[in-house]
Amino acid sequence: SQQGEEDPQALSIQEGENATMNCSYKTSINNLQWYRQNSGRGLVHLILIRSNEREKHSGRLRVTLDTSKKSSSLLITASRAADTASYFCATDVRGDDKIIFGKGTRLHILP
Amino acid sequence: DAGVIQSPRHEVTEMGQEVTLRCKPISGHDYLFWYRQTMMRGLELLIYFNNNVPIDDSGMPEDRFSAKMPNASFSTLKIQPSEPRDSAVYFCASSKGWGPFNQPQHFGDGTRLSIL
């Protein structure tokens, strides 16, 4: 897998259900961020989790980070139609002064 | 507060023409980033500035691409001459903090560029 690769590529769920997206990466990181992108718009920052943190919450969002497995997950609880968007993880690669975005997960919330 | 403002929102031009994309970052932000997004390659960092100084331009694809930041409230990304493979959505983002990638970035809504 490439640095910052999301899984699945696309996800459709019923409104009210929980949505889980995963991000895997290859090298050590300083932090990992999740962003949302609505169609035709710019990216919107959701959560930043640092390499020494394991879990963070923000409203209906829960992010976990497992540095031993080089993976992160984004959980959206009680999904709403407005959550329909693409979700990207971005890794701040340690020692490389780079930020790398994944290709994203397209989430579609069905009414 | 106004977010990051990009102009134009859409640009359609013929191959060989010069293209200039503009960005106004959020006031007080000291980092400014230019990205390109395509279906094939995803979101790629082209160049970023800190306090108006270019720090890393290793993502700029070719010499045809150039970026400037003459002051804290304005940046341009120029492509000359443009080619069809430059067609993409170009985003500008800004942030404030003690490092380029350890705080949230605020994105504009992008410029959708089509080179015919």
Explain how this protein is built.
The complex is a heterodimer of chains A (about 110) and B (about 120). Chain A contains no helices and 11 strands. In chain A, the strands form 2 sheets. In chain A, strands 2, 4, 5, 9, 10 and 11 form a 6-stranded mixed sheet that branches. In chain A, strands 1-3-8-7-6 form a 5-stranded antiparallel sheet, with no helix packed on it. Chain A is an all-beta fold. Chain A is globular. Chain B is mainly β. Chain B contains no helices and 11 strands. In chain B, strands 2, 4, 5, 6, 9, 10 and 11 form a 7-stranded mixed sheet that branches. In chain B, strands 1-3-8-7 form a 4-stranded antiparallel sheet, with no helix packed on it. The chains are: A mainly beta (about 110), B mainly beta (about 120).
Topology, pairings included?
The complex is a heterodimer of chains A (111) and B (116).
Chain A: E1 5-7, E2 10-14, E3 19-24, E4 29-37, E5 43-50, E6 55-58, E7 61-66, E8 71-76, E9 85-93, E10 98-101, E11 105-110
Parallel strand pairs in A: 2-11
Antiparallel strand pairs in A: 1-3, 3-8, 4-5, 4-9, 6-7, 7-8, 9-10, 9-11
Chain B: E1 5-7, E2 10-13, E3 19-24, E4 31-38, E5 42-50, E6 53-56, E7 65-71, E8 74-79, E9 88-95, E10 106-107, E11 111-115
Let me know the largest β-sheet of chain B.
7 strands, mixed
Work out the number of β strands of chain B: 11
Distinct helical segment count of chain B = 0
User: What structural category do the secondary elements of chain A indicate?
Assistant: mainly beta
Strand content of chain B: over 45%
What is the typical, i.e. mean, pLDDT of chain A?
93
Low-confidence parts of chain A, pLDDT < 50 over ≥5 residues? none
Order of helices and strands of chain A: EEEEEEEEEEE
How much helix, percentage-wise, in residues of chain A? Answer: under 10%
Helical proportion of chain B, percent range? under 10%
| Rg over CA atoms of chain B | 13 Å
Instruction: Report the average pLDDT across residues of chain B.
Output: 95
Regions with little confidence, pLDDT below 50 for 5+ residues of chain B? none
Quote the beta fraction of chain A: over 45%
Largest sheet of chain A: 6 strands, mixed
Task: Kindly report the oligomeric state of this protein.
Answer: heterodimer
Terminal CA distance of chain B: 36 Å
